[in-house]
Every structure is written in structure tokens, then in C-alpha cells.
Amino acid sequence: MAPSAVSPTQQHSRLAFASKKAQDAVAVGDRDSGLTKPLADMMGQWDNFSFAPIRESTVSRAMTHFTDLDAHAETDIVIIGAGSCGLSAAYTLGTLRPDLRITIIEAGVAPGGGAWLGGQLFSAMVMRKPADVFLREVGVPFEDEGDYVVVKHAALFTSTVLARVLAMDNVKMFNATTVEDLITRPHEQGAEGVRIAGVVTNWTLVSMHHDDQSCMDPNTVNAPVVISTTGHDGPFGAFSVKRLVSMKRLEQLEGMRGLDMMRAEDAIVKNTREIVPGLIVGGMELSEIDGANRMGPTFGAMALSGVKAAEEAIRVFDL
Ligand code: 48N
């Protein structure tokens, strides 16, 4: 069947929310040579080529995001984990609520979690309908196979959603940064309860060495709403729900059950929810609390769980 057509104008309109500066950067010049004219004119002219002058300290000041850390010390919504669920939540939130400041904390240098590949290191990504609705929303081409669709490379999905999210003026991602604890406040209904009021962060390499180097204290981000999508595996998988158990706020984790695609994906999307006041859990981290089945190499539930997590976050934020 013909691949889904996302017209250039649709693609371009998808960038409509990007800041004007960012949008100019992707403005398309005349393409009679296949490249934009400025780039085409550069080719073959390398003998007299040189970059504009710069001083190293200028790069250092431009690169270090201390002003971002300052701006995001107080934020509206934190998303822990920039995997397929977290990125889908960020896209949906950033699009629906450009008035909100959204802070993504991602432990990996490379965001994307498990969504750079399909399954067993093969590259194609399968999503069951109706998750194709999200692919059309963000402009990811796919092959329509009836009850499911195939994105020719998982990285095409992840890089497209990542590009959309990072182009948003109200979203900032701090990668190579780990949430190593949750900020809590006594919950109105009884001292044993807590509500979540933000996250505790550190550079990931620091977080991984607390056992062999003491006194590397963390940083903090205050937020009334936190979405946790930390997945079910990896060094920090299922972080928030494991922390809720260790702080005796959750009795125990039911633990992810065996693979059953038909049950797993519906359960993850339907049960994406606020677990404790101020904390919404989605994606595969949820399977660890609920004892939901795993779904294996199909990603529709991740995308739509992210959409639902965004909807829940807006509901909680607007309370
Ligand atoms: O991709 P993941 O691991 O998690 P999800 O829920 O977005 O997607 C899950 C999906 O990839 C699957 O597992 C598929 C569907 N397979 C299912 C199956 O049955 O096998 O992304 C989580 C992200 C990663 O990028 C981590 O680096 C990050 O969260 N992360 C954290 N970032 C900051 N602080 C933390 N404490 C933390 N923990 C994890």
C-alpha cells in the first residue's frame, strides 16, 4: 500500500510552533540544484573558505546552559525520561500548552530510550493502529499494512519527534542528567501521604558513582507536576515507582508480566495515570507497578501513553 503522504505544507506547518529563529534556520531556499542556493554556491569554493572569527570563551559561554538551569529551577511540568513515551508526552504538552514551561530530564547522552531500534536490534518500528494517528500528527512517514503500520527505521520516528519537541520554545531538555530522587511534601490527607513537588537531579556520571565517591550532592527542580516515563530496564529503569516503594509510599511493585501484545498495549494506555498526587506514570514504567504484560517490539502504546500522560498532566496542573 502507498506510504502515507505527509505533504511539504503539512511538514512545514508542523514546524509552525518552532520559534521564528529556529524556523528561519530550516527555511527552504530555491532547490533547483537539489540543495539550497547558499550551500550549492559554497561547493567548489573551498580554497578561499574560512569560518567567521571566534574566541574560545565565547563558545564556552554560549554552550553552558546555566541560564537554562536558572530558568528551569522552577518549572511547570517535569518529564523524567525522553524515550518514546516521554517524547510523545512532551510533544503533546508542548503543542497543547505553549504557556507552560516543560523540563525534560534524560539520563542518557542520547535521548530516545529504546526507540532507536525495533526489536532484536532490527531497525523497523511497528505500531498498531490507531497509533498511526500520532505518526501523522508529527509527520513520520510509514507503510500502511492494514491493522498496523511500519516506520522504515525506528530512528525516523524518534528523531522526528525529538526535532519537533526541541524546536518548541517552551520545552528544554537536559540530557546526560539523572533524576536521582523526588521532591516530596506532606500530602493534605494524612502525614503518611506525600505529594510530589519536583525532582532531584545530578549529572548521570555522578549519579552512577555515589557508591565509590561520597558527598556529590544533587541539584533540584521544583514543579507541581511530574510525568515519569523511565521505562522498565536500563540502569535507572522504573526509577520513580521504585523510589515510591523505598520511601514506603507504594507497598510493592507488581512487576512486569510476560509478553502479550493484545493485553499489554491497551492496559498501558488505559492505565497511564496519576499514581500519587503530582506524579503521573506512563510507558513501560507503568507495567512495573500494575503487573501489566510487556508488549515487546511494538510501540503504539508508548506514543499514546505519552498523549494520555500529557492529558493527565494538564488536568492535574489546572486543578
Ligand atoms: O524507551 P524507554 O526505556 O521507556 P518508554 O516507556 O518510553 O518506552 C519503552 C519502550 O522502549 C519499550 O520498552 C518497548 C515497547 N518494549 C517493550 C518490551 O516488552 O520489551 O525510555 C526511558 C528513558 C530512557 O531514555 C532512560 O535513559 C531515561 O528514561 N531514564 C531516566 N532519565 C532521567 N532520570 C532517570 N532516573 C531515568 N531513568 C530512566
Q: Helix- and strand-based class? A: alpha/beta
Residue share in helices? 25-40%
The count of strands amounts to 14
The global form is: globular
Strand order of the main beta sheet, please?
A: 6-2-1-10-13-12
Q: What's the number of helices?
A: 13
Model regions low in confidence, pLDDT < 50 over at least 5 residues: 1-6, 9-19
Biggest β-sheet: count, sense, barrel? 6 strands, mixed
Rg value: 21 Å
Helix and strand element order: HHHHHEHEEHEEHEEEHEEHEHEEHEH
Mean pLDDT: 90
Q: In whole angstroms, how far apart are the ends?
A: 45 Å
Bound molecules: ligand 48N
Strand proportion: 15-25%
GO cellular component, one term: nucleus
Protein name: Thiamine thiazole synthase
Keywords: Cytoplasm, Iron, Metal-binding, NAD, Nucleus, Thiamine biosynthesis, Transferase
Binding site for substrate: 85, 106-107, 114, 179, 217, 232, 284, 294-296
Secondary-structure map:
Blueprint: H1 8-14, H2 20-25, H3 37-42, H4 56-63, H5 66-71, E1 77-80, H6 84-96, E2 102-105, E3 125-128, H7 132-138, E4 143-144, E5 148-151, H8 154-166, E6 171-174, E7 177-186, E8 194-203, H9 204-207, E9 219-222, E10 225-228, H10 239-246, E11 257-259, H11 261-271, E12 273-276, E13 279-281, H12 284-290, E14 293-294, H13 300-317
Parallel strand pairs: 1-2, 1-10, 2-6, 10-13, 11-14
Antiparallel strand pairs: 3-5, 4-5, 7-8, 8-9, 12-13
Helix pairs in contact: 6-8, 6-13, 11-13
